[in-house]
Amino acid sequence: DPSDASVTTLPYKPPSPPWDTCVYNSCYCEENIWKLCEYIKSHDQYPLKECYAAFIFNERKMIPIWKQQARPGDGPVIWEI
């Protein structure tokens, strides 16, 4: 009977460091991703084969990103890659 099964659920722990300890460069998103990957690799919390970094761009090499500190109002920031 599945209701009799004992299940232990571990709390989710994000692979990234706490926000206030992150290494951050305001104009170099690639550097930020590199540092995040470096952190994940050095802390052995998750197998690297389960972690991915994706760079998203299009033919114009421009992408809109919302929720950026540099955004105008509620609109997106257009980044040129």
From TrEMBL:
Residues of the Protein N-terminal glutamine amidohydrolase alpha beta roll domain: 24-80
EC number: 3.5.1.122
Presence of the UniProt keyword Cytoplasm in the record: no
Pfam family, one: Nt_Gln_amidase
Broad class of enzyme this protein falls into: hydrolase
Catalysed reaction, written as an equation: N-terminal L-glutaminyl-[protein] + H2O = N-terminal L-glutamyl-[protein] + NH4(+)
GO function term, MF aspect, one: protein-N-terminal asparagine amidohydrolase activity
Keywords annotated in UniProt: Hydrolase
UniProt superkingdom: Eukaryota
Family in the record: Belongs to the NTAQ1 family.
Assembly and binders: Monomer.
Function field: Mediates the side-chain deamidation of N-terminal glutamine residues to glutamate, an important step in N-end rule pathway of protein degradation. Conversion of the resulting N-terminal glutamine to glutamate renders the protein susceptible to arginylation, polyubiquitination and degradation as specified by the N-end rule. Does not act on substrates with internal or C-terminal glutamine and does not act on non-glutamine residues in any position. Does not deaminate acetylated N-terminal glutamine.
Entry protein name: Protein N-terminal glutamine amidohydrolase
Species of provenance: Sus scrofa
